[in-house]
C-alpha cells in the first residue's frame, strides 16, 4: 500500500526518544537479576501493548484511518511473527542452560540490537522497493518459501551449536564455559574472556537476523512508508521480552500457532504478488486492501489459539536412550557423559566415567 506521509523530523526524534526512555525504564526496573514471574510479565506485556496502541491512536489522529490501519496491521503482523522467535529463544536458552534470572538481561540486549539491525534492513527495504518495485515478486517468493518451511517444522531441527553468531564470536573473543553472574566479559591473568552469556546474546542476534528475512518483506507488503514500518516493528520488538516470559512454559500448548503463522506468511506472500502485479504489470490486477490483511491475521491467530486449547497436542514420544548424553560447546569442547558408560565388576574393579576418568579399586 502506497502511503506518502509528510512526517516531520521532530516526529522521528519523538519516536526515538520514546523508545530510548522505555528501554531505560525497563533496564532500571530489571537492573537486579531475578526470575521474571507470570504476573510481572503480564503487567509489562500490558504496558507494551498499551504504548503501541496509544501510538497507533496518534497515527490515526495525525494521518487518518488509512495510515492508522496500516500501522495496526504491521504491528500485529510483526507481533504474531515474533511468536516463532520465542520457540527459538527457548531452544537457545535450553541449550546454553541459561539461568532464568539472567534471561531478561540477554533478551534486553538482544532487543536493543534487533532495533538497530531491523531499522537498517527496513530502511534498505523501503529504498529498494521505491526504486525497484519488481523486487516485490522476490519478496513474495521468500514469504511463500518461509511458509512452506514453517509448515514442515524445520525449526525443530535447529542446532544452536551451529549458530553463525556464536561461531563468529569465537573467532573474535575466547569464551569461557562458566557463567559469572550477569557479566558478559571477565579478565583472567590480564586476558579478556567472554562468558556464555555473551555467546547467548550473539545467538539471539543471529536468530533475529534470520527472522528479519521473513518479517521485513512481510511488513513491506503492508506499507512502504518508513515511519509506519519502523514504528510498528519497534513497538512489536519492544514487547518481545515480556511476551517470552508471559508465554514461557505455555508455548507447547499453542501447537497450532506455527500453522497459523505459516498461513499468514503465505497470505502476505500472495498479497505481495498481487501488489507487484498491480504496479508492474497492469493496474487491472487487484490489490488486497490492508483491512483484509488485518482481518486475516486476527482470525488466523484466534482460531489457532482456540483450537490449540480445545485440541491439545498428543504427548511427544521419547525414544529409548534419549536424555542421557548432553554436550555443550561454548568456547571450548566440553562433553559430559553421565550414566552412559558404566562398568561394574563386583569384588574386583569398579570404573565410573563421569566427565573424567576415575578408577576405584574396591578389592580390599
Automatic annotation (TrEMBL):
Q: Which UniProt keywords apply?
A: Membrane, Transmembrane, Transmembrane helix
Record's Gene Ontology CC terms?
membrane
> Sorted alphabetically, which InterPro entries does this protein's record hold?
Integral_membrane_TerC, Integral_membrane_TerC_rswitch
Checking Pfam families in the record gives: TerC (PF03741)
Q: Where is the composition biased (Low complexity)?
A: 321-364
Entry's localization field: Membrane
Positions of region (Disordered): 314-364
TM stretches of this protein: 12-29, 41-63, 75-94, 106-126, 132-148, 197-221, 227-247, 256-276, 288-309
Topology with regard to the membrane?
Multi-pass membrane protein
Q: Which family does it belong to?
A: Belongs to the TerC family.
Q: What is this protein called?
A: Tellurite resistance protein TerC
